[in-house]
Specification:
Length: 125
C-alpha cells in the first residue's frame, strides 16, 4: 500500500501512527456515523477494537478478490443506533443468481437484478 503513495512520508501511512489520530478525532467529534474507505481485513479488526464500545460496525463492503483486498466500512454510534442484523450481498454473485452475463454498466437488467436482491435482503430484517 505504501508504494501507491510515494509522495507521502512512509510514517504517516502506517496504521500505528494513523489509527490513534483517527480514533481520537472520531471520539472528539462524536460523529453518529463514520464512513471509511480502503479498509482491509487488518484495519477492520483494529477499528472494531479501537472504536468499541462507543461504535459498532454496521456495514463492511470488501472485495477480497481484488489485489488491494480492501473496501468500505460504516460504523455507527452504539448509543444512537442498534445493528439488528447483517446480510452479505456480493454484487458479483447477483449476476450469477439472475443468469446475467456481465451486462453493461447502467443496463436495466442489472438494475432489476440489484433491486430484486436488495428487496429480498430488506425483507429479512
Amino acid at each position: 500500500r505504501i508504494s501507491k503513495f510515494a509522495y507521502c512520508a512512509p510514517g504517516v501511512l502506517n496504521y500505528e501512527s494513523r489509527l490513534p489520530q483517527l480514533v481520537g478525532k472520531i471520539q472528539d467529534k462524536r460523529a453518529d456515523v463514520c464512513c471509511f474507505q480502503e479498509v482491509d481485513s487488518d484495519l477492520d479488526i483494529q477499528l472494531r477494537q479501537q472504536l468499541a464500545p462507543d461504535y459498532q460496525l454496521a456495514v463492511i463492503l470488501r472485495n477480497d478478490t481484488l489485489p488491494a483486498r480492501d473496501g468500505c466500512a460504516v460504523f455507527v454510534r452504539s448509543d444512537k443506533f442498534a445493528v439488528v442484523g447483517t446480510h452479505t450481498l456480493r454484487f458479483c454473485h447477483v449476476l450469477d443468481k439472475y443468469g446475467l452475463d456481465a451486462p453493461p454498466e447502467g443496463s436495466m437488467e442489472l438494475h432489476v437484478a440489484l433491486l430484486r436482491e436488495l428487496r429480498e435482503k430488506l425483507s429479512m430484517v
